[in-house]
Amino acid sequence: MFRLFLALNFLLLNLFACKGGYESCKLKITDSKSIKYQTLQIPVLKNKRLLFSSHLPNAKIIKYDPFLSLYLVEDRTKFEHPFKINNHLSLGVASVNNKRAIEGKIVKDQIGLNNFATFNEPLATPALLLNSCCALEGIVTPQGIIQKEYLERFLKSKSAQYGDIGIRVDDIKKSITITRVNPFIKDNPFQEGDTIVDFAGKKVKDSATLMRKILFSKVGSTHSVKIKRDSKYFTFKVKTQKRYGGGYISDTFLEQKGIYFSKNLTILKIANEFEGYGLKVGDRLMQVNGVKVSIIADIREHISDFKYFASLLFEREHFQFFVNIKGKVKSNK
Questions:
Q1: For 163-242, CATH number?
Q2: What CATH architecture does domain 2-156 belong to?
Q3: PDZ domain spans which residues (predicted)?
């Protein structure tokens, strides 16, 4: 009760201190030049800016997160009043640019690197998601809202590396359900349809919270994961591995093998080890294990459906050819 009293008092003080509301936030965005050429260039730390950009910025780059297209760069203008991450309770949020503020609320939190947060109102991009004190709650990108927890981790971490235990999840019928399993992670014990009961001995309330715990965990660290499969319970010990795809990078599980795709399923980047397979940048993927694919999610859906190797059909200049890529585990199906 006492905590609630303190929280309410803090909110009242906050509201009084921020009486300018979102109009002042619009002015701050204009004064700081936080939106320029359809990119976000937000002053966040002393003499530094947080950039969201699909292009390499013309600035001194301190660090880069390719998954979320985030850059931390030096700020030559040295804006005196940087934006801060909101670490307190907030009565409301708005998507704000230098022209308008759209008040509303997040209706679904960001689930890892594949499902960005969604808002209850249509939003223009790019924009800043702010509370009435102009503190950052997230940023609005073409794929959705990147929430403050990810922005804060990027600002504080030394690298943009994320953890992975070989699963993708979603909230289905009030349960955290495994929707996809990485077939290229050795000894992956999970199956599609498993529901997560707890992680590291503690219950997690939703998929968004679970994926943050996994992604933010140190590569090489070991965790216990309790799952329910049909009517039985199992507890697995899993080691966090390096994440290779997600966000603004394709996430087909083939990234772990060194193959990266564009949205139209042409190869954007390929590891040197695949020279012997005859694959080239620009080859377009047509089928995965005998099933036609047209979007990234299709590859993820069908890639684990094999016993010994994944069979991929590519097309190059109207010529089609198969490539078989060996997996590390048998299919869980």
A1: 2.30.42.10
A2: Beta Barrel (2.40)
A3: 163-240
